[in-house]
């Protein structure tokens, strides 16, 4: 396509006419846009208390007076307190015992084992476990394998299970 001075003038004139038309509509058009959506008007009639309750209950709502609501809250709190007391009575001095399957692989250290046992809630402190193993001179006698240990075991039992 070849651009000539006449085609450029025609294009410029078209832009000028379009801009002028849009400006005229903007300046002299309506000041507020009208919505094309249908707007529903709501009735502003006053409903009686009975009519409101009837309408709400027909839509699945439950209506209570403040006194009824407070009565229900009180009953619920009493019920929760009774359940809490029952749980306290049911609790005895049973100790929770954690069990885990510990997999010791080649290259693990006794520090790694202590941390794994601590994370599994078998022992309280992994560093103390490592120090005990080191005190016994067993840090290099770690036996690779899979071992079942539980929190009810003593440190001696755990060490004798995992170390040679």
UniProtKB/TrEMBL annotation:
Q: Which domain of life is it from?
A: Bacteria
Q: Which organism is it from?
A: Rossellomorea aquimaris
- Put simply, this protein is called Endolytic transglycosylase MltG
């Amino acid at each position: 396509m070849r651009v000539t001075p006449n085609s450029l003038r025609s294009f410029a004139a078209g832009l000028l006419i379009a801009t002028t038309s849009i400006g005229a509509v903007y300046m002299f058009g309506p000041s507020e846009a009208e919505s094309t959506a249908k707007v529903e008007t709501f009735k502003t009639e006053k409903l009686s208390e009975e009519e409101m309750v009837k309408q709400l209950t027909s839509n699945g709502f439950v209506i209570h007076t403040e006194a009824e609501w407070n009565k229900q809250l009180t009953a619920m709190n009493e019920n929760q307190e009774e359940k809490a007391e029952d749980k306290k009575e049911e609790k005895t001095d049973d100790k929770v015992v954690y069990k885990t399957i510990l997999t010791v692989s080649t290259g693990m250290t006794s520090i790694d084992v202590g941390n794994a046992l601590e994370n599994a809630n078998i022992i309280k402190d992994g560093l103390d476990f490592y120090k005990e193993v080191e005190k016994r001179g067993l840090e290099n006698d770690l036996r690779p394998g899979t071992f079942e240990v539980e929190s009810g075991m003593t440190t001696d039992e755990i060490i004798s299970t995992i170390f040679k």
